[in-house]
Design brief:
By secondary structure, this protein is of the alpha+beta class. The protein contains 3 helices and 8 strands, in the order ααβββββββαβ. It has one domain: Pleckstrin-homology domain (PH domain)/Phosphotyrosine-binding domain (PTB) (PH-domain like). 31% of the residues lie in helices and 33% in strands. The strands form 2 sheets. A 4-stranded antiparallel β-sheet has the order 1-2-3-4.
C-alpha cells in the first residue's frame, strides 16, 4: 500500500465546507494561499461561505472562513482577481458579534466589531438547510467563546465577544 500524504486538520474540515457552500473551485484555488498564511494547519474550519459587504457592494465577493479560533475574510481585486486579506481576527478579539438569519431571503447578516471597526457581511445561502447550518456554526463558535470567558471571570475582560443573535 502506498504512503498517502497526511492531510492537516484545516484542509480536512475546510474542503467539505467549501463543497457544501458551493464556492467555485477557482475562487478556492486563488484564495487558499492567503488562507494558508493566516490559518494554522491544526485549526478546525467551522464555516465557509462567499459573502458581500452591504456597505460596499461594489467591492465584490469575499470569502468568509470561520474556524474555532479566528475569523478570516479575503477578497479579490476586481481587475486582476488577486486575493487579499480583508480581515483576520481571533475570536476573543471580536466584540458585539451579531447575526440575523432571514429564512425568507435565505441569507445571514453577520456583524462584528474588531480593531478596524464594525464590519458587516451578508451571506446568501444556496438552499434553506444551509441557512440553519450557518446559524448553528455561528452559535457554536461565538457562544462557546463567550461562555468560556464568563466562566473565567464574573466581569469578562475587554475583548470578550458579546454575542447577540437576532
Amino acid at each position: 500500500m502506498e504512503d498517502e500524504p497526511e492531510i492537516d486538520e484545516f484542509s480536512r474540515t475546510f474542503l467539505p465546507l467549501v463543497t457544501q457552500a458551493g464556492v467555485p473551485t477557482q475562487v478556492v484555488d486563488r484564495n487558499l494561499p492567503v488562507l494558508r498564511r493566516h490559518v494554522a494547519g491544526t485549526d478546525t474550519a467551522v464555516m465557509v461561505a462567499q459573502c458581500v459587504r452591504p456597505e460596499k457592494p461594489a467591492a465584490g465577493p469575499h470569502l468568509f472562513v470561520l474556524t474555532r479560533t479566528q475569523l478570516v475574510v479575503t477578497y479579490e481585486s476586481r481587475l486582476w482577481r488577486r486575493p487579499r486579506l480583508h480581515l483576520r481576527s481571533r475570536i476573543e478579539d471580536l466584540e458585539a458579534v451579531t447575526w440575523r438569519a432571514d429564512p425568507a431571503g435565505a441569507s445571514v447578516d453577520v456583524a462584528v466589531t474588531c480593531a478596524t471597526g464594525r464590519q458587516r457581511f451578508w451571506i446568501r445561502t444556496l438552499y434553506p438547510r444551509q441557512l440553519w447550518r450557518f446559524d448553528a456554526a455561528l452559535e457554536k463558535v461565538f457562544r462557546a467563546s463567550a461562555d468560556a470567558a464568563l466562566r473565567r471571570s464574573l466581569f469578562p475582560p475587554r475583548g470578550t465577544p458579546r454575542v447577540v443573535r437576532t
